[in-house]
Every structure is written in structure tokens, then in C-alpha cells.
């Protein structure tokens, strides 16, 4: 009686598994890059150090990322995606009612989640300046922040119905510029909570000085 040949997995079934393993390996390498950047900073980060942290050979790393810039651009893109999720989750439902939410509370509602994201992801701040060399990364980040700023303008318009829209747009843009340095550096005061308090004070003081409440 002829023997039955061993069962084989169809190529079409193997392909998704290979793709999944490849994506998992890429995420593992990006996690390792985050650890290395946290430890030694952007300039001293090398692909060899990232490969060692990931427990793979440099050659294996190069199967996924062609060089350091390619690797860190991918890490920046991941951060931008995560930041977009954070921004999308910010609840401004009651923010248009001055009686229901003070300007301080509104500023906390806007700045708090983004600052918490930066604090939890130190490599994000270290990449922020360098990302200016990558056209796609900064464009995506700017779009994410622009969407939040537009929501902020809408809220300010509800809170200040007698104020010209152009003036509110300028006020919102300046408020976000005041906040940006606190995102793009590790820490100004050495204490993340104090950093956030100082940023909120600067934003609230500016807005009130412009007659925006």
C-alpha cells in the first residue's frame, strides 16, 4: 500500500504568517531603538547598538531597515500614529461652556494628554528635532496638531462669541507655539509635572492677556 505523503501547508497560508512575523520583528526592533535612544540619545544611537539591544545581528536588522535614518524615520512614524490616537481621544465636549469649564481646565484638557505621552515616551522628544529632516514625519505630525488646534479654535469661538474668528485663530496658534517646546525637549525644569504647570500658566496668561477666556 503506497505511503501517504506528509501534509504540507499551502503557500497562501504560509504567507500571512511570514508577514505577521516580519511585522512583529520590525516592532521589536523599533522597541529596541526606543530603549537605545532613551539610554544614549539620538546622536550616539547606532544600528549595531539597536541590533544588540534587540538580540539580533546587524544583518538581520538590515533586512528590515536599510540604515539608521530609515530605522528612526519608522520609529518617528509610529510615534506620530500613537500621538494621533491620543489627540483624537481628547474630550472637548463641555469645553465650549465657560461656566462648565474654566480656562485652566480647558488648557489641562488639551495639554495634559500630549504632555503625558511625551513624558512616557522620552525618545519621542529626542526625535522631534531630528524629524524635521524627514518630510513625511513632520507633515503627519503637523496635521495631527493642526486638527487639534482647529478644534481648539472652535471651542474658543463658542466661549468668546463676540471675538473675531481671525483673532481666535491667532490666539490658538500662539498658544500651541507656547506648548511646543515642552514637547520637543526632555524636561525644562527637571520635573515633568512642573513643566506642565509652567506651560499651562504661560498659555492661560497669554490667552487672558489677549482677552480670550
TrEMBL record:
InterPro entries tied to this protein: DNA-bd_HTH_TetR-type_CS (IPR023772), Homeodomain-like_sf (IPR009057), HTH-type_TetR-like_transc_reg (IPR050109), HTH_TetR (IPR001647), TetR_C_15 (IPR041669)
Alphabetic keyword roster: DNA-binding, Transcription, Transcription regulation
Pfam families given in the database record: TetR_C_15, TetR_N
Keyword NADP: no
Region ranges (Disordered): 1-20
Highest taxon above the source species: Bacteria
Database matches in Gene3D superfamilies: Tetracycline Repressor, domain 2
DNA-binding stretch(es), residue numbering of this chain: 46-65
Domain HTH tetR-type span(s) in chain numbering: 23-83
Signal peptide: none
PANTHER family associated with the record: HTH-TYPE TRANSCRIPTIONAL REGULATOR BETI (PTHR30055:SF234), HTH-TYPE TRANSCRIPTIONAL REGULATOR RUTR (PTHR30055)
Name by which UniProt lists this protein: TetR/AcrR family transcriptional regulator
Amino acid at each position: 500500500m503506497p505511503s501517504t505523503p506528509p501534509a504540507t501547508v499551502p503557500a497562501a497560508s504560509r504567507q500571512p504568517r511570514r508577514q505577521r512575523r516580519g511585522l512583529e520583528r520590525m516592532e521589536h526592533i523599533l522597541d529596541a531603538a526606543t530603549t537605545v535612544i532613551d539610554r544614549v540619545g539620538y546622536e550616539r544611537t547606532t544600528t549595531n547598538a539597536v541590533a544588540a539591544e534587540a538580540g539580533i545581528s546587524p544583518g538581520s536588522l538590515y533586512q528590515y531597515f536599510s540604515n539608521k535614518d530609515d530605522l528612526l524615520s519608522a520609529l518617528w512614524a509610529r510615534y506620530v500614529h500613537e500621538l494621533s490616537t491620543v489627540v483624537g481621544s481628547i474630550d472637548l465636549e463641555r469645553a465650549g461652556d465657560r461656566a462648565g469649564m474654566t480656562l485652566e481646565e480647558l488648557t489641562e484638557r488639551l495639554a495634559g494628554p500630549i504632555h503625558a505621552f511625551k513624558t512616557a515616551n522620552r525618545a519621542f522628544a529626542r526625535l522631534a528635532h531630528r524629524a524635521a529632516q524627514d518630510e513625511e514625519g513632520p507633515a503627519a505630525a503637523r496635521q495631527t496638531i493642526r486638527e487639534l488646534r482647529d478644534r481648539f479654535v472652535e471651542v474658543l469661538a463658542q466661549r468668546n462669541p463676540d471675538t473675531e474668528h481671525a483673532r481666535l485663530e491667532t490666539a490658538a496658534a500662539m498658544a500651541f507655539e507656547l506648548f511646543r517646546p515642552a514637547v520637543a525637549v526632555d524636561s525644562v525644569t527637571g520635573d515633568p509635572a512642573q513643566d506642565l504647570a509652567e506651560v499651562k500658566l504661560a498659555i492661560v496668561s497669554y490667552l487672558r492677556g489677549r482677552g480670550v477666556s
